[in-house]
Amino acid sequence: MDAALLSVGVSGLSTPLKLAATLFMMVLTAAAAQVSFPLPFTPVPFTFQPMVVLLGGAVLGPELGMLSQVLYLAAGVAGLPVFAASPELPQGAARLFGATGGYLMSYPFAAFVAGWLARRGLDRRYLTSFLAMTAGLVVVFACGVTWLTLYAPGADGRSLQTALSVGFYPFVIVDLVKLAIAAAVMPAAWKLLGSDFAD
After folding, report:
1. Is the Cβ–Cβ distance between 60 and 53 less than 8 Å?
2. Which residues contact 95 (CB under 8 A, 6 or more apart)?
3. Number of domains into which the chain is organized
4. SS3 37
5. Which of 46, 80, 140, 161 could form an SS bridge with 37, CB 3.0 to 4.6 Å?
6. Residue 121 sits in a domain of what CATH number?
7. Helices (H), strands (E): how many in the chain?
8. Closest among 38, 35, 67, 71 to 50, alpha carbons compared
């Protein structure tokens, strides 16, 4: 199937539908934050957000994917209950300065990276789709661990190794497994779309 026919995607939607898709991804990110499992050895909870953020970037493209996460953060800063539950910090702008602030602030950039790579055709096959999302995950962890090391509460006494122990090692395998599942979505969607065009 001609790739030009398959390039319709979200970019071919009308402006109201683009806005609706962006808002839907914002809401989906907030919903993923509510599925949160605190771990006793780290201030960073386990959530499904990274998977949703990166899949959203791949689906919406870099600009709208990034916008969906900017809107998500704006909603959180405004005090809406969109962030994961925390025993230490209430909902609101203060959450961006807590232990998970680096992860949260990485989401727009991670979505952009995944969307940028997807737009260049990496979402057409399973392996490259997985690599595109993994590149976005690298952004999430790089920002999150850097924040834990340098800026988060207690960072003065926290080494990089400690930050990796509480913000990277416990999550990376599970997040890669989640991406391995999510990476199948875009190639399957393109295959289905191609079949529709063929009909």
Report:
1. no
2. 76, 83, 86, 89, 101, 104
3. 1
4. strand
5. 46
6. 1.10.1760.20
7. 9, 0
8. 35
* pLDDT given for residue 120 in this prediction: 93
User: What whole-number distance in Å separates Cα of residue 115 and Cα of residue 111?
Assistant: 6
Return d(Cα 21, Cα 38) in angstroms, integer. 30
Q: What is the mean pLDDT of residues 157-181?
A: 92
Give the model's pLDDT for residue 186.
83
% pLDDT > 70, the chain:
90
Count of C-beta atoms within a 10 Å radius of residue 39: 12
Tell me whether residue 199 is in a domain. no
What's the CA gap between 173 and 65, in Å, rounded?
24
Q: State the pLDDT confidence band at 193, using cuts at 50, 70 and 90.
A: low
pLDDT at 197: 38
Quote the Cα angle for 29-96-85, to 5°: 55
Cα 135-137-82 angle, rounded to 5 deg: 140
Q: Which residue did the predictor score with more confidence, 120 or 88?
A: 120
What dihedral angle (degrees, nearest 10) is formed by the CA atoms of 139, 145, 148, 149?
-120
Give the domain range for residue 35.
3-193
Cα(54)–Cα(110) distance, rounded to whole angstroms? 7
| Structural domain contains residue 152 | yes
Would you say residue 31 has pLDDT above 90? yes
